[in-house]
Amino acid sequence: MEALLAIAIGALVAAAVYLMLARNVLRFIFGLVLISNAANLIIFTGGRLTEGVPPLIPEGANLPAADAANALPQALVLTAIVIGFGLFAFALVLIFRAYTTLGTLNSEEMRVAEPKGDPLL
Amino acid sequence: MNSIILRIGSRYVVGILLLFSIYMLLRGHNEPGGGFIGGLIGATGFVLYAIGCGTADARAALRIMPQTIAMAGLGIALVAGLAAAAFGDALFTGQWLFIGAEGDDKGLPLSTVLVFDIGVYLVVFGAILTLVFAMEEEI
Amino acid sequence: MTNDEPSRRSGNGFAGVVPVLISGAIFVFFLTLVPQISAGDVLRWSYDWVPSLGIKLSFLVDGLSLTFSLLISGIGTLVLLYSNTYLAGHVQYARFALFLTSFMLAMLGLVLADNLIGLFVFWELTTITSYLLIGFGHETTKGRRSALQALFVTGAGALALLAGLILLGISAGTFEISEILAKGDEIRAHEMYLPILILLLAGAFTKSAQFPFHFWLPNAMAAPTPVSAFLHSATMVKAGVYLLARMHPAFSGTDVWLWTLTIFGAVTAVFASFLALRQTDLKQALAYTTLMALGTLTLFLGQTSSYAITAFVTFLIVHSLYKAALFLVVGCIDHATGTREAEILGGLGRVMPVTAIAAAIAALSMAGFPPFLGFIGKELKYAGALAVASEPVFVAGAVLLANALMLAVAGVVAFRPFWRKTDSELPRTPREAPWQMLAGPVLLAAAGAIFGINPDLLQVPLVNPTVATFLGDPTDAKELKLWAGVNLPLFLSIATFVLGLLIYVIHRPLRNLLIRADNAAPNFDRGWDAFLSGLKAFAWWQTKYLQSGVLRQYIFITFATVLVGLGGTMLVRGIGNVLPDLTGIALRNWAVVALITVGTLIAATTRSRIAAVAALGVVGIGVALIFIIFSAPDVAITQLLVETLIVVLVAVAMLRLPFLDAQGESDHRPWDAVLAIGVGGVVTLTLLAVLATPLDLRLTEYFEVTSWPEAFGRNIVNVILVDFRALDTFGEIAVVVIASLSAYALLRTTAKEKSE
Asked: Domain NADH:quinone oxidoreductase/Mrp antiporter transmembrane: where (chain C) (predicted)?
């Protein structure tokens, strides 16, 4: 299963990179969402997959079941999801703001700081 | 959005979701749940309320500005972390008090860890509502 | 006002006097240590600086460091006294005095440090203060360029030095210099000996301006003359020599050490002596003789015989005394006449008799005439050169040629300006320098004479303990004496006088010849300029292509780097060939993966906003299903909730944002697709390679074992978040707050602009 997921993650990353390379920044943040998902899955898969045994300690025991899932990547992924959401929301607001100010979603036309024909460029 | 069913329904759902989110928060240390999940559930409830009844109503129902809630949550989490220093431990070391503990039964556990998780809950709750309310109002 | 423009006002008040008193007190303090050190004692003082790295701030006073300390603080006092008059009334004198005093303290720290890291810190402090002092005349392009050049050359060398010192510390197992020196045999046999030596030499040779790094030193003469006297002849440029001397017990004796130092030293000495004769500016001429002296000192440090070491120690002292004196004399001449041009100056002897006498004594010492200390130094140099076992003729020949040229330069610098008859018009009517400016040259020249007549004053207190630093035994030092009998060094001395006087007589035609030769030869200074402009052109070029201001290009370069880095590493190491094992996977899991993949493909290719958002939702839910199936309930719940919120936010934003593609425009980008597929493929291969390596579960096991008994939580994921790694979580929720407040602020600004 890990191998199958590795291939699916490759597809996710490829789609994300393709979207992030687009001129339209809305596509860029779609790519951002996909690559966040891919990164979370990489961490999760890297810690190996276990079906049906969550990392919980049963009542009356001191240890989780011997074949319990790896808790560490889960903790990492959980915070990464929330942070990824924060990043996504900020990026979305930023492109919204850019659109209302500049009137375009094309990143190549957003050149207020470095206008075309600048002698330094 | 103007839908009577959604408007009436969201008033009840927000209450249920808030209650559920606090339940998820409190059980989080032993069962699936915790501050992140609780905060997300609570925020989802208010987002629904804002969609159904408008952000003005949602803000009024919340009473406190969401960004204040987020900052308060950050402060609470920090205090919970610093409290360990008062007991002579390294920062962010959990401190526990068991009320009525007998033998194996640990009674009612109170801890800085729970306080910290409440801080996380408030941060997630407040931060998401800050964002969503502002977006709904400004866009 | 320019640096060397004199003012007739005297002194600079508080800022002028205090530094003199400080440095004077330091000099007296070191003088009081002389009896103890010459009796064979070594003083050590240590303070734990960075205990976790074994770095101490430790200081050591032995013969070598005491000799240097006395030269630094003694000459420092005289130079500060001199400067107070030389730069009297300069608006930035306080700054100048601060730089110069800081330099002196840094230099003292450098020679006293007994820890490699401490030594390096002081080394760099001298680099920086030297930069500030050379650039004191920062109004001129030349001043700024010279300062920067010195900083770059010595700074680059210092980086090499740092690497060498760290390697040395690691190889020796200690950063304390005195402990390292005790392990000489171990270090010479160490496999890292050669790399360490090369790095140390890079630092020492740049600092001490050895060929081919010599070009910065003559340019450093842009500094005010007292600075040149202090830093660029008597002290800072000797830091490289000091480093070699300090490391001598641990590193010398190998063929590499012997030949590198001998050849670089000899080439520098002879090359610089010729260039010295080429100069018509007195200060430039002195600068090149300083190079010659540094070369000679390096040459002798290559050897291990007691003659060579005694010659090194004696010449070190002799050179500091006469060279500082002569620089100060040139400063007096400049101050009095407004020029330093050898072909204009003349007949100053009658107007400036004291300066002339001090100059004459210092020059005679430099030229190596008896009964001055320079004579003893020169005799020892010949004895030391002849004691070189391998190539005595080469070494003695180099020393002889350099000495003869030096004699001629001494005549040009300190004899002709005073006693030559000239009709040239001077820019200013000269008069004798005030006493503050005479004190330095007179005392320094007198010291050369007194030590020459009575070498015992120097031998027991300083030379013997310093030689002992190298060879371990003060009795190894050869005797300093004026009359050593009729021997080969004496004949070489006579040959030097004859050759030197001959060169002096024909020095003007010879100079023209040298100028022509020098112009034809490759010019290192111009090479430096070419190097810098090449560097700038490269920076301009790479900025133009890498930082184009186009977001797409940044992202393209970033992912292309990922592709090349990961893919290249896997190709080189041959770890990319893991075949995926796709057997035994439940149909349900195939279905989830298919869901994710289909969503992904739609999201990447659709031109509809609604379809894209829906496809993202499908992917998110598919990922949540993966978390549910593979035992991560907390993560799955979080993922589902976040997916919901993302859809809400995007839906709200869509109300005001335009369509994905403008009318008639399509989004076909074949090259981007090639890169994207490449990156995706390399990520898959990397993950497969990771999965093929064993997993280290120690951390997970620790959390599992301690979660309930110590942290009283049954949900291990939550316990990690709020207890074990609570500080990390705190940082993360802080990020969430910042992101939401920033977004809020951005939206509010829009609203305000709308309402206005």
From this structure: 113-396
* DSSP state letter for C115: B
Nearest to C626 by CA among A22, A49, A79: A49
Q: Which residues of A touch C700 (CB under 8 A)?
A: 47, 70-72
CA geometry: angle at B79 spanning B77 and B85, to 5°?
125
| Crossing angle for the helix pair C633-654 and B35-53, to the nearest 10 degrees | 30
Contact list in A for residue C627 (CB cut-off 8 A) is 44, 77
Chain B: residue nearest A83 by CA?
Answer: B124
Q: Which of C216, C202, C203, C204 is nearest to C149 (CA)?
A: C216
- Assigned domain for A116 exists: no
> Is the CB of residue C400 less than 8 Å from the CB of residue C348?
no
Q: Domains of chain B: which residue ranges?
A: 4-138
Identity at C484, one-letter amino acid code? A
pLDDT in tens, chain A (121 residues): 889 999 999 999 999 999 999 988 889 999 999 999 999 999 999 999 988 899 999 888 888 888 889 999 999 999 999 999 999 999 999 988 888 888 888 888 887 777 776 655 4
pLDDT in tens, C163-209: 999 999 999 888 899 899 988 888 888 889 999 999 999 999 999 88
List chain C residues with CB under 8 Å of B10.
none
* Residue A27, CB-side half-sphere exposure with 13 Å CA sphere: 26
In whole angstroms, what is the distance from residue C107 CA to residue C238 CA? 10
Cα C647 from chain centroid?
56
Per the structure, the count of domains in chain A is 1
Taking phi first (over 0 means left), then psi (-120 to 50 degrees means alpha), and beta for anything else, what does residue C11 get? left
Shortest distance between the Cα of C750 and any Cα of chain B, in A, equals 8
Residue A43: which domain range?
2-51+69-109
| Residue A39 belongs to some domain of the structure | yes
Q: Which residues pair with C58 in a beta bridge?
A: C46
d(CA C209, CA C202): 10
The complex scores an ipTM of 0.94
Inter-chain touch A21–C631, beta carbons under 8 Å:
no
d(CA A12, CA A41): 10
Domain membership of residue A62 (yes or no) is: no
- For B95-124, give one letter per residue: b (16+ CB within 10 A) or e: eeeeeeeeeeeeeebebbbbbbbbbbbbbb
Which CATH number characterizes residue A97's domain?
Answer: 1.10.287
CA distance C448 to C326: 12
- What confidence score (pLDDT) does residue A75 get? 94
CA angle, residues C465, C327, C152, in degrees to nearest 5: 85
State the DSSP H helix or E strand holding residue A90, giving kind and residue range, or none if neither: helix A71-102
Three-state secondary structure readout of C440-458: HHHHHHHHHHHHHHCCHHH
Q: What are the residue ranges in chain C where pLDDT is below 50?
A: 1-8
Given a cut of 60, is residue B77 above it in pLDDT?
yes
Written as one letter, the residue type at B77 is: A
Q: Which of A69, A90, A96 sits opposite C742 (nearest CB)?
A: A90
Chain B residues 96-115 within an 8 A CB cutoff of chain C: 96, 106, 109, 111, 113
What's residue C6's pLDDT?
47
Q: B35 vs chain A: nearest CA distance in angstroms? A: 11
* pLDDT at residue B70, as a whole number: 94
Q: For B4-8, B118-122, C40-44, C713-717, which range has the lowest pLDDT when averaged over its residues? A: B4-8
pTM, two decimals, is 0.70
* Residue partners of B64: CB distance under 8 A and separation at least 6: none
The model's pLDDT over C405-451, given as tens digits with 9 standing for 90+, comes to 888 888 888 888 888 887 777 788 888 888 888 998 999 999 988 98
| Mean residue pLDDT across chain A | 88
The CATH 1.20.120 domain(s) of chain C lie at 551-660+669-693
pLDDT at residue C7, rounded to an integer:
47
**Reported CATH class of domain C551-660+669-693:** mainly alpha
